[in-house]
């Protein structure tokens, strides 16, 4: 039986899906589309049961983040490392875009996992600290502290989070 998507969910995903995939690419590098699609299927399945007081964005990112961590653990067990893949594109600026993306991923990969997640959620996904805190299962203050420490570390590498 085919799954039908509620109109409100469809509208939400139309706006949020590209950001979710971008977040997952910066956070994990590999299999971002697969992780995002799995999280979307779970969201559609649970849409009517979600708490209307809580934004679905936090739920979606939390599920995707946990799925990405699970996948990363499985891959590390199998291969010993989580490789970073270059973006796939047919544009004339492929080399420049790939270099910039790989450089950003390389610098972000050097951050501790929670700092990286906080920075990507706040600066790339442009989520408020409260929503990022829900996704990470912590407080607003902890998210701001993680971002501050990450920004200090990124500035030492001459990469400002605004450039992400």
Automatic annotation (TrEMBL):
Gene Ontology molecular function terms on file: DNA binding; sigma factor activity
GO biological process: DNA-templated transcription initiation
Family of the protein in this entry: Belongs to the sigma-70 factor family. ECF subfamily.
SUPFAM superfamilies, A to Z: Sigma2 domain of RNA polymerase sigma factors, Sigma3 and sigma4 domains of RNA polymerase sigma factors
The protein's name: Putative RNA polymerase ECF-subfamily sigma factor
Family matches, as PANTHER family: ECF RNA POLYMERASE SIGMA FACTOR SIGM, RNA POLYMERASE ECF-TYPE SIGMA FACTO
Domain of life: Bacteria
Database matches in InterPro entries: RNA_pol_sigma-70-like, RNA_pol_sigma-70_dom, RNA_pol_sigma70_r2, RNA_pol_sigma70_r4_t2, RNA_pol_sigma_r2, RNA_pol_sigma_r3/r4-like, WH-like_DNA-bd_sf
Keywords: DNA-binding, Sigma factor, Transcription, Transcription regulation
Coiled coil: none
Residue ranges annotated for the RNA polymerase sigma factor 70 region 4 type domain, each copy included: 105-154
Domain called RNA polymerase sigma-70 region: residue spans: 15-77
